[in-house]
Fold this protein.
Amino acid sequence: MATEAAMPESVLLRWVRTEGMAEIEQYRRAGGYDAARRVATELTPDQVIEMVAASGLRGKGGAGFPTAQKWKFIPKAAPVKYVVVNGDEGEPGTFKDRTLIEGCPHLLVEGILIAAVTIGARKVYIYLRREFYRGRLLLDAAIAQARAAGFVGERIFGSDHAVEIVVHPGAGAYIAGEETALLESLEGRRAMPRQRPPFPAVAGLYQQPTLVQNVETLCHLPVIIGLGPERYKELGPPVLFSVSGAVVRPGVYEAPLGVTLRSLIFDHAGGMRPGRRFKAAFPGGVSSVFLTEADLDVKMDPDSLRQAGTMLGSAAVIVVDDSADMVEVMARAVEFYRDESCGKCTPCREGTAWIAQVFERILHGRGRSEDLALLEGIAGGMTGTCFCPLGESVPPGLVASLRLFRDEYERRIAAGATDGR
Amino acid sequence: MTEAAREEIRRLAGLYEHRQSALIPALFVAQQEAGYLSPAVLESVAEVLELPVTEVTSVASFYGLFYLEPVGRHMVHVCTNLSCMLNGCQRLLSRMQEVMGIQPGETTPDGRFSLRAAECLGACEEAPAVLVDEDRWAAVSPEGVEPMLERYR
């Protein structure tokens, strides 16, 4: 607990954890919508982009692309532009966007207004996964309140800017979280990724310039404008980590970029459960390569994690303890990709199905000694050949598990052989 | 499909530049009214949005939350992804199967419940997480299954 006292004051979670922040009066009393008002009435788009660039903000959906740079790709002169909010939070282990929307939906609405006014978009679609029923109710109510206050609709904050916001439901497809698949889904089709380039910034929704931005990324904007980029950076910069799995206190924690994996697990999330030992952790959702005990002091930032052979992704830390079997863990991850593959490209569609079949036989005592080489072979065939990141996420974690936990696979296969099944 | 549902779908179509964008929300409107998306219902949606039935059916069959077969009055989704797996979702799912007398993907003979194993519901701090219709239940234990289901008739 001593470490908690030393933690800097939270800048994002403070909005979420204060009672009543779903109500606009409460949000405004705390200074809410001041940043959006300044952006709509005082600051120029270039000034806002400059502040966002100075903050170092990067996309929080998984790819980690610098936000200001993305905004600069949107052609200024285009007559029609869109902002599309990616609220299809589906990367296993990730629940920060849901937490933000349920705790303080106005923070998202304000972030949307800042982005829309800055790039000159009049229409915003929030693609929200259907399963977030509670979030949908709160968000609809927040948008209605903001509209009544004159912050959404025509002439927002008394300026010449107009911003319309429409909430659009997902329908239960993980791949829709990939930005071009999301646009396909928003256009009423199967959520299958598009060829890039052109990137959405140039030809996105209805082939118009489109800014696709994750929920959390947008929620950082009011804070950056409100505090100023320098202070924002001093206070972290803050990152929301979703910590789950075999820890004492799973939850969303705000910590400075570069906090160690050890501190997140042991200081923030209460450590391992009594009598249990740390075994592995996925630092950025199931799509990231897991880390082991030797990596506990790695810093949770994009560059350090890349050096460690993995990624920050959506900053979703899934902790595995010594009671879990890594073969079962990897099998579950592979089944997920098999079920969620959109089927567009062969390496992903077939590769995930084959790998899942091999796991199924290993788990049921029918594993063969050549199966590990077979898994490595299929993983090799999928590497660099899949159309989008979904399929490409499978080989690195699988290969790492075959290297670091080979004994667990071998034991499974040997046990199956002696059972005579 | 009732006139009210058709009217709602036309309203939804007005929110977008292209009417096909309203397809997913429209399918939810139709499903909510009919219980599931029968070929006749899919045809009605296609008619209102002026889209080919094949396109509407193709889209409906892609997404996990559209039901092309009849389902129970209450849909129970049990998350089985990693964080929930590490928190005992298998024991929870087994208990559900025992209480309902069905396997995941099936519906009880009385039409009260359908049971499904779900991918990550984005509620990992509440693992194992369950969604019954639109209600999220947190950290459900095998012992908690019966009292929870009692709430849904």
User: Anything to note?
Assistant: The first strand of chain A starts at residue 82 and ends at 87. Chain A touches chain B through 54 residues (CB under 8 Å). The radius of gyration of chain A is 22 Å.
